[in-house]
């Protein structure tokens, strides 16, 4: 029943084979979606080479650089999508960043620069990309982003990223309200802690994972593929009545009090 054949899906945020975005891309491809992939450009082209080799088995028909701190690159990305695909059905937003100094120690010590950068990349970029995608989602669409429990509860060392995720979740609701009349749905997945390039910057991430494995109802954490399955559901007609929601994919950890 879960069939994304004929759907054009843009996936952002793939860095390596541990990325949650990579798990999502694989499951969308498995469901039949036509993939487009963006990568973060760097001066030496290392990210481009790494991501291109990784996604090659998924045969993306669009592969473009997109730094969300560069308005021109965002515009070029969606212009290319319009020219090549004509329409966009699915947007996967897996973008988050905070400087390592902002992910440990006292939250009150976060610098203005680190605070601004974290919210620009991790929160505002969803609004940017959704606004650029809106004119291309002529037949409706689904936008899915990634959040974490630290956006609603205090998690040691998550610090400024918790503020960013709280803003991201509220952005999901405002975007869902705005885009709903266009039959565009906007949802978030709150995934349990997974060892990724991004999470490695959070102090004590391994302790966090072990704690979830001990406390979560399923007595484990989750995999990239499980998050990918949830994303495929949210992008499919099976979730046609779901928008503005945060779906927890965390082995049940969120329900526990202790």
Automatic annotation (TrEMBL):
Pfam family, one: adh_short_C2
Chain residues that bind substrate: 98
Protein family (similarity comment): Belongs to the short-chain dehydrogenases/reductases (SDR) family. FabI subfamily.
Listed InterPro entries: Enoyl-ACP_Rdtase_NADH, NAD(P)-bd_dom_sf, SDR_fam
GO MF entries: enoyl-[acyl-carrier-protein] reductase (NADH) activity
Domain of life: Bacteria
Name under which the protein is recorded: Enoyl-[acyl-carrier-protein] reductase [NADH]
Listed GO biological process terms: fatty acid biosynthetic process
Binding site residues for NAD(+): 13, 19-20, 95, 165, 194-198
Record's keyword terms, sorted: Fatty acid biosynthesis, Fatty acid metabolism, Lipid biosynthesis, Lipid metabolism, NAD, Oxidoreductase
Pathway involvement of the protein, from the record: Lipid metabolism; fatty acid biosynthesis
Catalytic function, reaction form: a 2,3-saturated acyl-[ACP] + NAD(+) = a (2E)-enoyl-[ACP] + NADH + H(+)
EC number(s) stated in the UniProt entry for this protein: 1.3.1.9
Species lineage: Bacteria, Bacillati, Cyanobacteriota, Cyanophyceae, Coleofasciculales
PANTHER family assigned: ENOYL-[ACYL-CARRIER-PROTEIN] REDUCTASE, ENOYL-[ACYL-CARRIER-PROTEIN] REDUCTASE [NADH], CHLOROPLASTIC
Organism this protein belongs to: Allocoleopsis franciscana PCC 7113
Active site: 148, 158
Coiled-coil intervals, chain numbering: none
Broad class of enzyme this protein falls into: oxidoreductase
């Amino acid at each position: 029943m879960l069939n994304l054949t004929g759907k054009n899906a843009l996936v952002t945020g793939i860095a390596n084979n541990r990325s949650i975005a990579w798990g999502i891309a694989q499951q969308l491809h498995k469901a039949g979606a036509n993939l487009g992939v963006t990568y973060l450009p760097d001066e030496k082209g290392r990210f481009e080479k790494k991501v291109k080799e990784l996604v090659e088995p998924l045969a993306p028909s669009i592969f473009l650089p997109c730094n969300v701190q560069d308005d021109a690159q965002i515009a070029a990305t969606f212009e290319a999508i319009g020219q090549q695909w004509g329409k966009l059905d699915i947007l996967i937003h897996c973008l988050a960043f905070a400087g390592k100094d902002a992910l440990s120690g006292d939250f009150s010590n976060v610098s203005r620069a680190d605070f601004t950068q974290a919210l620009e990349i991790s929160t505002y970029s969803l609004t940017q990309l959704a606004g650029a995608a809106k004119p291309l989602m002529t037949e409706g669409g689904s936008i899915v982003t990634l959040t974490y429990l630290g956006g609603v509860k205090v998690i040691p060392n998550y610090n400024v990223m918790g503020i960013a995720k709280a803003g991201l979740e509220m952005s999901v609701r405002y975007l869902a309200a705005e885009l709903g009349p266009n039959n565009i749905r906007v949802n978030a997945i709150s995934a349990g802690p997974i060892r990724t390039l991004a999470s490695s910057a959070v102090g004590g991430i391994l302790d966090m994972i072990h704690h979830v494995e001990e406390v979560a109802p399923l007595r484990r954490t989750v995999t990239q593929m499980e998050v990918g399955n949830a994303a495929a559901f949210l992008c499919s007609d099976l979730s046609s009545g779901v928008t503005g929601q945060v779906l927890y994919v965390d082995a049940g950890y969120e329900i526990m009090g202790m």
